[in-house]
Amino acid sequence: MRIVTIVGARPQFVKAAVLSRLIREQKAHERDGIEEILVHTGQHYDANMSEVFFAELEIPAPGHHLGIGSGSHGQQTGRMLESIEKVLMETKPDVTLVYGDTNSTLAGALAAAKLHIPIAHVEAGLRSFNRRMPEEINRVVTDHLSTWLFAPTEAAVSNLRREGRPEETIHLVGDVMFDAALHAAQLASGQILEKLQLPSRGYILATIHRAENTDDRARLCNILEAFQILSKSLPVVLPLHPRTRSVLRTEKTLERLAADLRILEPVGFLDMVALEQAARLIVTDSGGVQKEAFFHRVPCVTLREETEWVELVELGWNRLMPPADARAIVAAVNAELESNRVRSTPSELYGGGKAGQRILDMLQQKQASR
Asked: Active-site residues: which are they?
């Protein structure tokens, strides 16, 4: 079986590493059978957002690096679609494997569908029910193009059924990010904490990158004001996404913020895991970081109106806080810092660390039956 895997952004590198490692392990024990060709669209092209992840997670060098880079959603997706189509026509895979909800995901699914190549979507069925988010459009379209839908949660399965996806295409497998977190926890060191002189459980870790926050001046100002207020009580560590850095540089506020916040360049996955594990609390607008907070048993405040990971809110690990007011953000964070509530941690939530193997087994079964 030949698999073409399409990746382009940080979370996809982490997810793809799980299955790539399993494929290599299996291939080492089989003379014939499974082959993976990795295609990197170049959606994340900064070395700290791309190359370091391949090195740390021991992902083989991409067979094809498309070098697409940034651009508007339509421009970026269109360029990816054209380039991915060429790769698929050349490699003739048995299945195209896509992850998550980025423009790379959508372009890979569209290209494969036009060429009648089966599509496997890992992280299928997630919904924020906010069509203003480009990620939501990407999720929905990809799910409706896909041959096999690998859902991480029961809620995701319910969403797919509600949208009329055929039952035989839907598979509850768990979340490969949990697999990745368990693996990374064994590899991460505390060197970055020593370098930054950060005490364990003595700081707030923050990440901001979604366009709905970075491109809305009022929302971004509320978030940054809240971080500055919070920094008077606890250090606020902010690894800065290139998009956010670009906006702050344009607004000429980066230097002023640096006086109050611990602003970092983007960090590698293992350093991020170390920072997450030792944080007192995480504040983010990232879907992936919300889950990573739970994996490491750290409370989280999410600066959005909604989340795809509703179970984390229900279990008490995540609090939604739309960034409409700086003082409200501060109050929400302080409430979590002071909370003594009991948070539930179901052992099998997100697949218990076996999602990757379930996906690989199912792909092989499906291919054998075609």
From this structure: 209
